[in-house]
Amino acid sequence: MLPHTKKNHPPSMADVHEPLVRRKRKTVLVDYLVQFRWILVIFVVLPVSALIYFNIYLGDMWSAMKSEKKRQKQHDDNVQKVVKRLKQRNPKKDGLVCTARKPWIAVGMRNVDYKRARHFEVDLSAFRNILEIDKERMVAKVEPLVNMGQITRATCPMNLALAVVAELDDLTVGGLINGYGIEGSSHLYGLFSDTVVAMEVVLADGRVVRATKDNEYSDLFYGIPWSQGTLGFLVSAEIKLIPIKEYMKLTYTPVNGTLKEIAQAYADSFAPRDGDPAKVPDFVEGMVYTESEAVMMTGVYSSKEEAKRKGNKINSVGWWFKPWFYQHAQTALKRGEFVEYIPTREYYHRHTRCLYWEGKLILPFGDQFWFRFLLGWLMPPKVSLLKATQGEAIRNYYHDSHVIQDMLVPLYKVGDALEFVHREMEVYPLWLCPHRLYKLPVKTMVYPEPGFEHQHRQGDTSYAQMFTDVGVYYAPAAVLRGEEFNGVEAVHRLEQWLIENHSYQPQYAVSELNEKDFWRMFDASHYEHCRRKYGAVGMFMSVYYKSKKGRKTEKEVQEAEAAILEPAYADEA
């Protein structure tokens, strides 16, 4: 019984926070394959990952040595190759268009099984260059396969950074724009796609257009985020830059209490109730370690001179032998509040080495000092290699007995979301990261609650509602205890909770949504407008079809090619 639960309450009240009671499950062969997977990871995945990372680094350095003019010329040539390839497609014989990227290369956990059916491939692998860093316009022009590690390596020495830098090195600009991207600065700047100034897109008919929020392609500009590349091929983007300083002054604040009290402390850490903008940090995140313990972290950019003043502690968290960041932050629960200075680029990528806390499942001893000192320099394993080497049985095991989901919920409902996750999944740690969801000129796939601006809730403004990403990444406690856990049902209940609470599920994750519920969660109107206007119907698969779990049959492909999709609106309650 939890400390805050009273025995005399009726079950509906007393058990609101209690996890579901589950039966013990039998151990099967795949349990042993997962348990000893670390052998394959250490002797195959980590060494090969290191070689791949080194090869990518050399490629990035070679690209950086070229002049901007030469990089732009190569970009223009590659765009024309894409146009030429699209025009080679025979609509009567060839399948729907998608990239030539192998299914296992994607960082997301969703099954990319649509590529097992008939399709027409277009190779975008050459689009991995930073084209320009414009210090006057404060814009970075980059190709879609540029990743976060590459862009921070180029911009941080200039004391510049993207307004939103997703934490993991391997996350690419294209994925973060076409899908979803967030970081601890999103409470100021919104999602990654909100920081985009312009997009260069190859349309279904081969036209190359530049879309901005106020030109003739503004509808396409607002339609591409969350579309998963189903409106056209993004071949470059101009993204907002901001000035930064060399260090992040990070304050770790422990929180003890109920999940609702933790949620309130989290909101107070970045959205002061008196509305004083001076109290709003540059960065914020929270980690919930148990149903009664959490640590809130708030960061402010600081100069090298300030960080090196006598008495200030500098912590270079990027060194391979350092404790994993989430475990370092957890020490605040015993130490109490403390402050330290972290080199800014190392802070941006603080979760890369241990993949948040997934590294603990992949390598159970990976957080031990001896491993960090001897082999920590090989971390992290490439997610694409982990997927490529897991096989069908292990992949299905993770879908059934593991959770990797993000819940984008209004800030005032974070406490309810935490209680839901504790009751249904009992997964810890949990990640909390706030983001603005802007009220845009058009109703896009994701949008704030109608009338939010009149409620004057904590964190909201007249032009944006404050949401939070509740990151649920780990094995449920039931699985760790050897009990039964139905991952399919748990994800289905999570999705229904999100729909009922005007919340969203990023499409990188495994989804159990049928088409009707998918369009209950997301709004189809503007997306379908863009699909028709820009010739994507019958050329690119729909976003639901692309996100749908499981293999796609030839019949489904043919139906998707022939269909003129109608908006699938849900019945309003």
UniProtKB/TrEMBL annotation:
Location of the protein in the cell: Membrane
Keywords, sorted A to Z: Membrane, Oxidoreductase, Transmembrane, Transmembrane helix
SUPFAM superfamilies from the UniProt entry: FAD-binding/transporter-associated domain-like
Location, primary (coarse class): membrane
EC id: 1.3.1.72
InterPro entries per record: Diminuto-like, FAD-bd_PCMH, FAD-bd_PCMH-like_sf, FAD-bd_PCMH_sub2, Oxid_FAD_bind_N
TM region(s), chain numbering: 36-58
Membrane topology classification: Single-pass membrane protein
GO biological process terms, semicolon-separated: steroid metabolic process
Domain FAD-binding PCMH-type: 65-244
Enzyme class: oxidoreductase
Gene Ontology cellular component list: cytoplasm; membrane
Record's keyword annotation contains Electron transport: no
GO molecular function per UniProt: Delta24-sterol reductase activity; FAD binding
Stated name of the protein: Delta(24)-sterol reductase
